[in-house]
Amino acid sequence: MIQLILILAFGALCLSSLYFLARRTPRAEGGSGPLVEARQALQALRSGLLPPELIARIFARADLEYVLSEVPENVRPLFMEERKKIALSWVNQVRRQILLLRRFYLGSARSYARLSFRTEIALALDFAALLFACRALQVALYVRGPFAVPGMVETTAAVAARVCKVYEESLAFLSPAQLGALADRSAGAARL
Amino acid sequence: MPRRMDVQQAAEDLRRRTLSEIPRSLDRLIYLASMRDYNTGLYYHDGLASRFTQEVACEALADCHREAFRDLVGSPLRGLVCQMEGYMDSTHTSPGEFLTAWKKLEPYRVAVPVETDPLSAEFLFSSFKIALAILEARLRPAPAAPDA
Q: Of the candidates A41, A46, A170, which has an alpha carbon nearest to the alpha carbon of residue A118?
């Protein structure tokens, strides 16, 4: 009797393991979804959020000086409000993309790239510093406005660019052509 | 897929023959956006298509459109206000009507190239909004506060 119960329990355990394995989504470790997502996040940071000329335009002191010296006073609040909105949007988007990269790093990076222990530690520290810097910058922009903390903006952008560089080097084996193939495979897996 | 070299040649041709006559980036952005079919997103220019091919002309127009957009995003606020003032004068409508229409309809929102990164577009729209407010404030100065 005890043997029968043990066999039944073992069978139930096997069945439930099979059930959970079958329910794993293609996004789980080893799937190409997170990798494509990480590459897209890198692309968004590189071409949309971190180009120095765009950052320089958003936080341009020359615009502030122009508004303070040559523009009717009643327009100043609108200018400050609009630039604050854009500055906050910039830092929010940088933070969101960094979170996507970190998710990939924590979940799947080891499946794709052989990161050295040193690189892993450096990335972990950079992620922690960057996410803290983004939060601090959000608060500073909200409280003090978009032109009060140029040093923090510069530091945040520099650390984000460094994280992108380390990431790109770690995933250099993945050319755009391979990425396209992976995206197709990922879409195919999602349809199934 | 048209060859990159053909596209560059066609873009150069377009810059030399047509865009050199349109000195402001804002005017170029609006002109090039008007060459685009809103249903398909494809650009059409008969003259350019007859010298090259339709596909090459389309790519060249898209390249020049992106270039005008980048120029405008990189322009300081003072420059953007000047461009808008110049454009407003060139339309021969009354400044009041122009400003009211642009504030209400925000026509610049449909003038950006496709696949523009969202933050750059958001930044340009915001700068247009500020530039319009500056022009309006100059046109209709706020009444002076009464003396205490």
A: A170
Whether residues A57 and B73 touch (CB distance < 8 A) is answered with yes
Taking CA–CA distances from B76, the nearest residue in chain A reads A63
Residue type, A56: A
Mapped onto helix, strand or coil, the DSSP state of residue B5 is helix
Domain range summary for chain B, segments of one domain joined by +: 4-139
Is residue A89 within 8 Å of residue A49, measured between CB atoms?
Answer: no
Q: Does B125 touch chain A (CB under 8 A)?
A: no
Q: Copy the structure tokens of residue B61.
A: 């127009």
pTM: 0.80
| pLDDT surpassing 60 at residue A105 | yes
Question: Is the ipTM value over 0.90, yes or no?
Answer: no
Q: Which of B87, B78, B79 is nearest to B108 (CA)?
A: B87
Nearest-10 crossing angle of helices B118-139, B54-73: 60
Q: Is the dihedral of CA A154, A155, A158, A159 positive or negative?
A: negative
Q: Name the 3-class secondary structure at A158.
A: helix
